[in-house]
C-alpha cells in the first residue's frame, strides 16, 4: 500500500473508532452488555458525570449567547447519547430565569478529538 493511501486508511479508521471508544469509556453504551448502537439513542447511565454536566452548562451558555437570555444552569435531569460523526448529547437541563424554574431539551454535537461542540437545538420542555 502506498504511504499516502496507508495514511488515509489509518486516519479513516481512527475517525470511525474514536467516537465508539469515547462513548464506551464514558459508560454511555447500550443496555445489553455495554455495546454501542451506532445511530441509536442510548440513555446516559450517570447524569452526574462531570463531562455530562459540562455539556449541559455549555448548552445553557450557548443558548444565552444566541438568544440574549440570562438562564442559569441548575442540573442535568435526564440524558441520552447518539454516536454519529462524534457524539450527540440530548439532555433535559433544569434552569432558572430569576426565580422562574424551567426545563429545556438541549442537543449538543461534540467531537472530542477535534475539541468541537455545537448546540444544535434548545427547546422548552412542556410540564
UniProtKB/TrEMBL annotation:
Ranges where the Cystatin domain occurs: 36-125
Name of the featured protein: Cystatin domain-containing protein
Keywords on record: Protease inhibitor, Signal, Thiol protease inhibitor
InterPro entries cross-referenced by the UniProt entry: Cystatin_dom (IPR000010), Cystatin_sf (IPR046350)
One MF annotation (Gene Ontology) recorded for this entry: cysteine-type endopeptidase inhibitor activity
Entry-linked SMART domains: CY
Leader sequence residues: 1-22
Glycoprotein among keywords: no
Tree of life domain: Eukaryota
Amino acid at each position: 500500500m502506498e504511504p499516502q493511501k496507508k495514511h488515509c486508511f489509518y486516519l479513516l479508521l481512527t475517525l470511525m473508532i474514536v467516537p465508539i471508544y469515547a462513548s464506551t469509556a464514558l459508560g454511555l453504551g447500550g443496555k445489553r452488555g455495554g455495546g454501542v448502537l451506532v445511530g441509536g439513542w442510548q440513555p446516559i447511565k450517570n447524569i452526574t458525570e462531570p463531562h455530562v454536566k459540562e455539556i449541559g452548562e455549555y448548552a445553557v451558555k450557548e443558548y444565552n449567547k444566541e438568544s440574549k437570555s440570562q438562564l442559569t444552569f441548575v442540573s442535568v435531569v435526564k440524558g441520552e447519547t447518539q454516536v454519529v460523526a462524534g457524539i450527540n448529547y440530548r439532555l433535559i437541563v433544569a434552569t432558572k430565569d430569576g426565580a422562574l424554574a424551567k426545563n429545556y431539551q438541549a442537543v449538543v454535537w461534540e467531537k472530542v478529538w477535534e475539541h468541537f461542540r455545537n448546540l444544535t437545538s434548545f427547546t422548552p420542555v412542556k410540564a
